[in-house]
Design a protein that fits this description.
The chain is an alpha+beta fold. Helix content is 22%, strand content 25%. It has helices at 57-60, 83-86, 106-111, 123-127, 129-144, 202-205, 209-216, 226-232; strands at residues 7-8, 31-33, 38-42, 47-56, 92-95, 118-121, 146-154, 162-163, 168-169, 173-181, 186-194, 206-207. It is globular.
Length: 243
Amino acid sequence: MNTAGQTVYPQNAKLDRTLLELPAISKTDNIVVHQGYISSYNTETLIPDWVAYELTEEEANGTFGRSGSFSMDPDFTGRQAMREDYSNSGWDKGHLAPAADMKWSPASMYESFYFTNISPQNHTLNERSWQTLERFVRKMAGQYKTVWVVTGPVVDLGTHGTIGAQKVAVPDSFFKALLIYDGESYHSIAFLMENNSTYHSLKSSTLTVNELELFIGKDLFCNLPKRIQESIEGKIDDGVWPL
């Protein structure tokens, strides 16, 4: 079993990053690092607590096609969800780090289908509002050359219960927080969408990173100097984020 706090680094892990995408990591987090993303996988809920990655303009314009098969993560030895848990559940296998952001290499694409990157997601949300948000992230990568992303499920009220024999938790909602640098200053923004078929516009789903941190109980973008976090996480610059 994967012990609490263990970090797994596959040989092909992308470790030359600035890691600005990472939230604060606790001693109980089970961290696995892949070429395209870092995941904190929860062996009780059987979904990630969060997934973080850096997306560059070049990566956002990758040319490798979508390919891969949903599977257990061979680099994570703890308890995981399986395909059978999702079968006939009525819920999509929702990517947290989207496959469309992983087109820059065959390995990053393939690894995006591991269950350490997957969570039960409403089909309409997955195909509409959440996909719109994912496209927005790629647009920001093109505009600002790099965007740092942390995203994950919120399991609080347990509104949707669990699926499968292993009782995989179905999130109440999903969050995504973004960080960019415009050449002079850092800027942040966050989004929160309920895990249902309601249409969620980007504008109506927006909140500050500070507000999201209070809601999910996590310290995001903690590798930024404290003074920068304090100056950017409580506001949203409308001129930076074209919603």
